């Protein structure tokens, strides 16, 4: 149980004892709330007693808030959450937040691995909260914000740098020329679509970047996700040769593909199973081939 | 204070398209969004985008299908505009690099979809929405469009005139989630609401946690009428614990639904003797719930969708992603065991009343996407029609707001377009608990843009201050109450009794909400605060849905009423409209326009 | 954004040379080890034996190439490793020149040594 | 640009658990590479004793080069160091081959297996050559 809630409860109770006479609407509300909380607390205790270990799971969650006293020093809070089949890390976090501590902070939205908001560091590995079944993990489950990014609060990290890197590769389709007719599409072979298919799946979750040692050491390294983005366009035959040259120029900068030391951890953690290392390596070869022309 | 020509609230498909359109017109446009654009729920769409692209197909066939699908509650001018603009918009996406699935000759593939008379659904694998969203965000990056991401818009800055149609929208107020800063956003030309769906009014939905109907609620309180709010689409196959969508493809390939007694209930209990599992979405959803209500649900909650008999090879070939979904989100191996499914809220056909150019009755306020109701989908949306809607009406709103000359809209907006006063007798008073409590966007005597904005900012600062400073209950309880009663009573089955109960529960929840406070004192990334404000919006939207549902005494499209089992064309080919009316919601009806420029639609029986 | 990647140093060639030298080294290093530890036991190495081997043109050439490629491969490898650790600016340049000079000295000294071992010149 | 937020021991603790095959391979390759360069420099230094050897002493086997080498070889510690060098070289070669394959995009799916294979093979080769290295006369 999070120790923090209990503290706060006792504090508010103390407040009330000092001013019992005047019954303002606020007091009434507070009284009601306390009553309800007491009930809930009791109920929760009953629930917890009846829950044997098989049915609960312990979360150890990283907590930090630069503004709130007691949270300025990073710490871990424990939450015991009832377990049910099919429960994901995200479900457990939501439960802990809605039942125990409403200040528990994490990003999430789609609950189906498409929005990329909830990449977390769970039991020593980058994972998407909503895509990770608790039953696959060891108890207690330790949940931290993504490593190598500044922590804003609790499990929320600053993604700005990641976005900057993504945008540094000019991540937009920019064909040398498009058909004049507004109803005429550009042709693309099935093979070519297959080639870029995996690379287009990226959901910008940042798990890969966070797992890469090189990116950790070199802030300017474009990182696997951005390089994969560049791959997605460089390999798209619809763009044309000129644009491809420009794209190669971007990725073969010093902090581009050459930084990658083929550690594969990006590929391993990517929730969308994008073969990142393979794409990076292919771009290295592409860049070398391209340079050979000028020798 | 920030200032731009056009402010787009929300950066899903609709918002991005609008911003790009405004940018094309040379306007200085900014996107203000509570999620980073690529996190928007447009990314979740799987199926596809409808547009008449091929030789044998034409826009009027698409329009006809859409009108029929809407069960004759769609407005012809909206539908025609939509079907005409869609092909160009889809090809535009292709020119922007969207990785569509392709034919052997290199052209964009199209596939058949429910309710379409021609295979006109373009798609990009089973992740069409993801690609659409990312392609458009990339184009926004290319154009250097300014994005205020993780800024939560809390209120519109609207002038104070008695009649909503005299009001002008000068911008909005937003809260920077990361720093807690509250700022006014002045829009010189217009504000476009593109905040997406409202699925969080229900506890079981395919929508994202962020789909809380903020845009609807803000526009509603600012004086824009809500149209056809009762029209909510429920999808029959969603995973029970998360609401993740299991695509219709499983049933299309031959998946079978069983109840707890292992009966193939679609046939054995006579819900659809011909089509069985492949009957339309609403029929299947109702059948499933009947089974559960009659005690034949598995674990009293869901039914089983079995595809094991299709064989591993076929499943891996055509339904591989379904295996992943079931495994990742439900912990079930679809090759070994049946998958649990139940109906879930999926889409809101109704919303902020707009015309074909995206304009609302308030000058300078636009809406597009799922938030809006041009009345394209009427009583039922066809699969694959929402994504092109984002493009078509997003673009139109963007162009119009940026000052492009456009054909005058045929659809009339605003309470004055009312033709018939409404008659609904809610068991309890709906609307604001205390109409003078600052719920109305237009308050104070301000009409001058700067003053309007400043007073709205002040109001929002106060609101946030009060929420954080005071003691009270946590919003999560209120939200859970709302979601629960909505799912119990305003779900697939609607009875008068249930709807009335829902209204009473919602009233109680509103009273509870008076007591909410934010426990987290931090100004840094305070999601507790954001969710608390969202819950307020959910309340308003839920109530509007329920009021509309109580008023509409017929069975049309997605709206089913126990006491009224048939479509009543004489009486009910009209939109239910709800005006906030300074906290005392007022119902009225607006006629449906069945005559288009080129074609007039005759209501026919909707059968497939 | 893009501007801080406008370095002129495109690692492409060094990267390729690192691989090409590696390929060469696989063979030569294995051969070297075999010859001087297994065929001829290291303890039995004498100047005369060495001189005999080094006086065959092909062996001499191979060994000298071994020296050069290994030096390039090793020094370039160290340099890359340091740069990957985030070495920048003047520090990076200092390291670059130091490693360059060290590598050069090694090759020079190695060449002198090999010349001393051979009867070819 | 953002600096990593320092989570002290928490961060370090987590990082280690997160190390995967590819990362270990990287660490080992780095380490062995450095040892090899180090050795290359020492090796040339040792071989420098051959400069200025006069033919007579060479004939007699008393020249500086021959005696330095055999002198070194007579130390047990040097023999062990040589085994170490072998291990380092063999791993660097095998993993180097693995890396070259990766560069060519061959067999990326089994990159972890090939790393383990390099380790095992290195071990096997080293064990097999211990007799040769430690054997031979120690003088
Ligand atoms: C699972 C699923 C599958 C679907 N499949 C299909 C399909 O195959 N074909 C089809 O045509 N349609 C499909 N739909 C429907 C379609 O995807 C949606 O209707 C559409 O994507 C909605 O887009 P939008 O731009 O209106 O909203 P969204 O994409 O939801 O974007 C809303 C935006 O508003 C922002 N926002 C919200 N509130 C605020 C606020 N208060 N302040 C600031 N910003 C705010 C959010 O950050 C977000 O950027 C599907 C829907 C779902 C849920
Ligand atoms: C025998 C065959 C060899 C092969 C196949 C080989 C292969 C490789 C490869 C592919 C790399 C590049 C790793 C990367 O950049 O990701 C590398 C790095 C390196 N190699 Fe070799 N190498 C061999 C021999 C040698 C020798 C003889 C030396 C010593 C002189 C050496 C020293 C190094 C060093 C110092 C590095 C850099 C390590 C680092 O990244 O820190 N290698 N090797
Ligand atoms: S490449 Fe994979 S891990 Fe990296 S951001 Fe994209 S989806 Fe996430
Ligand atoms: S983890 Fe890093 S080193 Fe390369 S293979 Fe992935 S980018
Ligand atoms: S919540 Fe969207 S990816 Fe997990």
UniProtKB/TrEMBL annotation, chain A:
Keyword Electron transport part of the UniProt annotation: no
Picking any one GO molecular function of the record gives: electron transfer activity
- Comp. bias intervals (Basic and acidic residues): 25-45
Q: Which GO terms describe its biological process?
A: respiratory electron transport chain; tricarboxylic acid cycle
Task: Give the domain of life.
Answer: Archaea
Q: Which UniProt keywords apply?
A: 2Fe-2S, 4Fe-4S, Iron, Iron-sulfur, Metal-binding, Oxidoreductase
Q: What's the cofactor?
A: [4Fe-4S] cluster; [3Fe-4S] cluster; [2Fe-2S] cluster
Q: Where is the composition biased (Acidic residues)?
A: 8-24
Q: Does the keyword Iron-sulfur apply?
A: yes
The protein's name in its UniProt record:
Succinate dehydrogenase
Q: Which organism is it from?
A: Haloarcula rubripromontorii
UniProtKB/TrEMBL annotation, chain B:
PROSITE patterns to which the protein is assigned, alphabetical: FRD_SDH_FAD_BINDING (PS00504)
Domain of life (superkingdom): Archaea
What GO cellular-component annotations does this UniProt entry give? membrane
Q: What is its EC number?
A: 1.3.5.1
Instruction: Show the Pfam families listed in the entry.
Output: FAD_binding_2 (PF00890), Succ_DH_flav_C (PF02910)
A Gene Ontology molecular function term for this protein is:
succinate dehydrogenase (quinone) activity
Q: What is its main location?
A: membrane
Report the active site residues: 281 (proton acceptor)
Q: Which residues form the FAD-dependent oxidoreductase 2 FAD-binding domain?
A: 5-387
Cellular location(s): Membrane
Q: Which UniProt keywords apply?
A: Electron transport, FAD, Flavoprotein, Membrane, Oxidoreductase, Transport
| Similarity comment text for this entry | Belongs to the FAD-dependent oxidoreductase 2 family. FRD/SDH subfamily.
Protein name stated in the entry: succinate dehydrogenase
- From what organism does this protein derive? Haloarcula rubripromontorii
From TrEMBL, chain C:
Query: CDD domains, alphabetically?
Result: SQR_TypeA_SdhD_like
Where found, per UniProt?
Membrane
State the source organism's domain of life.
Answer: Archaea
Give yes or no: UniProt keyword Nucleotide-binding: no
Extent of the signal sequence: none
Q: What is its main location?
A: membrane
Please tell me whether the keyword Metal-binding is annotated for this protein: yes
Which residue ranges traverse the bilayer?
A: 20-39, 59-82, 94-115
Q: Which InterPro entries does the UniProt record give?
A: SQR/QFR_C/D, SuccDH_FuR_B_TM-su
Gene Ontology cellular-component annotations: membrane
Q: Which UniProt keywords apply?
A: Heme, Iron, Membrane, Metal-binding, Transmembrane, Transmembrane helix
**Which ranges of the sequence are coiled-coil?**
none
Q: Which GO terms describe its molecular function?
A: metal ion binding
What is the name of this protein? Answer: Succinate dehydrogenase
Automatic annotation (TrEMBL), chain D:
Keywords for the protein's UniProt record, in alphabetical order: Heme, Iron, Membrane, Metal-binding, Transmembrane, Transmembrane helix
Principal localization reads membrane
* Localization in the cell: Membrane
Bilayer-crossing residues are: 21-41, 76-94, 115-134
Q: Which InterPro entries match?
A: SdhC_prok, SQR/QFR_C/D, Succ_DH_cytb556, SuccDH_FuR_B_TM-su
Q: Which GO terms describe its molecular function?
A: electron transfer activity; metal ion binding
Entry-linked Pfam families: Sdh_cyt
Q: Which GO terms describe its cellular component?
A: membrane
Q: Does the keyword Lyase apply?
A: no
| GO BP annotations, alphabetical order | tricarboxylic acid cycle
Q: Is Transmembrane helix found in the keyword set?
A: yes
Name of the molecule in the record: Succinate dehydrogenase
Q: Which organism is it from?
A: Haloarcula rubripromontorii
């Amino acid at each position: 149980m999070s120790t923090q809630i209990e503290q706060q409860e006792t504090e508010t109770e103390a407040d009330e004892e000092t001013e019992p006479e005047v019954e303002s609407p606020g007091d009434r509300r507070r009284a009601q709330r306390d009553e309800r909380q007491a009930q809930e607390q009791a109920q929760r205790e009953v629930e917890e007693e009846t829950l044997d270990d098989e049915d609960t799971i312990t979360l150890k969650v990283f907590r930090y808030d630069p503004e709130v006293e007691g949270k300025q020093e990073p710490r871990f809070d424990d939450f015991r959450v009832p377990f049910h089949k099919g429960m994901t890390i995200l479900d457990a976090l939501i439960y802990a937040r809605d039942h125990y501590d409403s200040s528990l902070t994490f990003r999430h939205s789609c609950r189906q691995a498409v929005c990329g908001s909830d990449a977390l560091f769970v039991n020593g590995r980058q994972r998407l909260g909503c895509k990770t079944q608790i039953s696959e993990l060891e108890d207690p489950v330790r949940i931290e914000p993504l490593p190598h990014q500044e922590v804003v609060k609790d499990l929320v990290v600053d993604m700005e740098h990641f976005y900057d890197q993504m945008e540094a590769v000019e991540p937009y389709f920019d064909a040398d020329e498009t058909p004049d007719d507004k109803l005429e599409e550009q042709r693309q072979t099935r093979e070519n679509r297959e080639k870029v298919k995996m690379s287009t799946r990226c959901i910008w979750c940042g798990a890969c970047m966070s797992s890469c040692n090189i990116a950790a050491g070199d802030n300017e390294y474009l990182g696997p996700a951005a390089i994969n983005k560049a791959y997605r366009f460089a390999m798209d035959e619809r763009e044309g040769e000129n644009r491809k040259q420009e794209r190669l120029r971007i990725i073969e900068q010093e902090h581009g593909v050459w930084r990658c030391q083929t550690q594969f951890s990006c590929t391993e953690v990517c929730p969308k199973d994008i073969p990142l290392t393979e794409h990076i390596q292919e771009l290295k070869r592409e860049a070398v081939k391209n340079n050979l022309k000028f020798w | 204070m920030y200032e731009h020509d056009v402010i787009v609230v929300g950066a899903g498909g609709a918002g991005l398209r609008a911003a790009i359109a405004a940018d094309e017109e040379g306007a200085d446009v900014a996107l203000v969004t509570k999620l980073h654009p690529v996190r928007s729920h447009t990314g979740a769409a799987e199926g596809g985008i409808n547009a008449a692209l091929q030789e044998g197909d034409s826009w009027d066939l698409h329009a006809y299908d859409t009108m029929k699908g809407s069960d004759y509650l769609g407005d012809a001018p909206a539908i025609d505009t939509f079907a005409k603009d869609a092909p160009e918009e889809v090809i535009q996406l292709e020119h922007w690099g969207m990785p569509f699935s392709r034919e052997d000759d290199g052209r964009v593939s199209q596939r058949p979809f429910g309710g379409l008379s021609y295979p006109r659904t373009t798609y990009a694998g089973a992740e069409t929405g993801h690609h659409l969203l990312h392609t458009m965000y990339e184009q926004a990056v290319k154009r250097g469009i300014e994005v205020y991401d993780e800024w939560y818009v809390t209120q519109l800055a609207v002038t104070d005139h008695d009649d909503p149609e005299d009001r002008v929208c000068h911008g909005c107020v937003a809260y920077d989630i990361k720093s807690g800063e509250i700022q006014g956003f002045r829009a010189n030309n217009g504000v476009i609401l593109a905040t997406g769906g409202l699925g969080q009014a229900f506890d079981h939905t395919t929508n994202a946690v962020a789909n809380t109907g903020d845009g609807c609620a803000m526009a509603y309180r600012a004086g824009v009428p809500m149209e056809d709010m009762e029209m909510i689409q429920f999808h029959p196959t969603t995973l029970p614990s998360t609401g993740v969508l299991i695509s219709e493809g499983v049933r299309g390939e031959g998946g079978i639904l069983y109840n707890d007694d292992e009966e193939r209930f679609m046939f054995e209990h006579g819900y659809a003797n011909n089509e069985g599992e492949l009957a339309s979405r609403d029929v299947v959803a109702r059948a499933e719930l009947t089974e559960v209500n009659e005690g034949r649900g598995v674990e009293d909650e869901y039914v089983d969708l079995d595809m094991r008999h299709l064989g591993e090879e076929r499943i891996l070939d055509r339904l591989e992603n379904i295996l992943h979904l079931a495994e990742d989100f439900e912990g079930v191996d679809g090759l070994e065991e049946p998958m649990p499914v139940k109906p879930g809220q999926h889409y809101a056909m109704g919303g902020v009343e707009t015309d074909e150019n995206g304009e609302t009755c308030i000058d300078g306020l636009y809406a597009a996407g799922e938030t809006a109701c041009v009345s394209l989908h009427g009583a039922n949306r066809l699969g694959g029609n929402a994504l092109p809607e984002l493009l078509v009406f997003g673009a139109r709103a963007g162009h119009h707001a940026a000052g492009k000359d456009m054909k005058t809209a045929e659809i009339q907006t605003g309470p004055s377009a009312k033709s018939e006063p409404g008659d609904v007798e809610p068991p309890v008073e709906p609307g604001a608990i205390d109409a003078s409590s600052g719920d109305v966007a237009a308050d104070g005597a301000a009409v001058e843009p700067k003053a309007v904005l400043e007073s709205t900012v002040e109001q929002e600062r106060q609101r946030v201050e009060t929420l954080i400073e005071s003691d009270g209950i946590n919003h999560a309880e209120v939200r859970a109450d709302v979601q629960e009663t909505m799912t119990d009573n305003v779900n697939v089955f609607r009875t008068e009794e249930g709807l009335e109960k829902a209204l009473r529960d919602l009233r109680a929840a509103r009273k509870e909400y008076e007591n909410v406070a934010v426990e987290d004192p931090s100004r840094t990334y305070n999601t507790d605060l954001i969710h608390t404000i969202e819950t307020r919006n959910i309340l308003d939207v839920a109530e509007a849905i329920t009021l509309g549902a109580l008023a509409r005494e017929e069975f049309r499209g997605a709206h089913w009423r126990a006491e009224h089992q048939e479509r009543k064309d004489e009486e009910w080919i009209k939109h239910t409209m709800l005006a906030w009316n300074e906290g005392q919601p007022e119902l009225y009806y607006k006629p449906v326009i069945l005559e288009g420029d080129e074609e007039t639609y005759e209501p026919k029986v909707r059968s497939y | 954004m893009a501007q801080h990647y406008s370095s002129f140093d495109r690692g492409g060639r060094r990267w390729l040379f690192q691989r090409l030298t590696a390929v060469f080294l696989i063979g030569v290093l294995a051969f070297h080890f075999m010859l001087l530890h297994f065929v001829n036991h290291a303890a039995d190495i004498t100047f005369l034996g060495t001189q005999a081997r080094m006086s065959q043109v092909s062996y001499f050439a191979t060994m000298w190439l071994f020296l050069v490629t290994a030096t390039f491969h090793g020094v370039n490898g160290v340099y890359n490793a340091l740069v990957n650790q985030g070495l920048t600016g003047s520090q990076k340049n200092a390291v670059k020149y130091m490693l360059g000079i060290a590598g050069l000295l090694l090759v020079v000294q190695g060449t002198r040594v090999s010349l001393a071992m051979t009867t070819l010149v | 640009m953002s600096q990593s937020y320092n989570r002290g021991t928490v961060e370090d603790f987590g990082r280690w658990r997160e190390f995967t095959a590819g990362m270990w391979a990287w660490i080992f390759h780095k380490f062995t590479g450095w040892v090899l360069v180090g050795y290359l420099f020492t090796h040339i230094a040792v071989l420098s004793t051959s400069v200025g050897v006069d033919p007579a002493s060479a004939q007699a086997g008393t020249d500086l080069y021959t005696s330095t080498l055999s002198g070194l070889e007579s130390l047990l510690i040097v023999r062990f160091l040589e085994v170490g060098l072998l291990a380092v070289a063999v791993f660097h070669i095998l993993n180097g081959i693995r890396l070259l394959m990766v560069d060519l995009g061959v067999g990326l799916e089994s990159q972890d297996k090939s790393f383990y294979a390099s380790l095992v093979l290195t071990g096997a080769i080293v064990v097999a050559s211990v007799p040769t290295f430690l054997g031979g006369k120690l003088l």
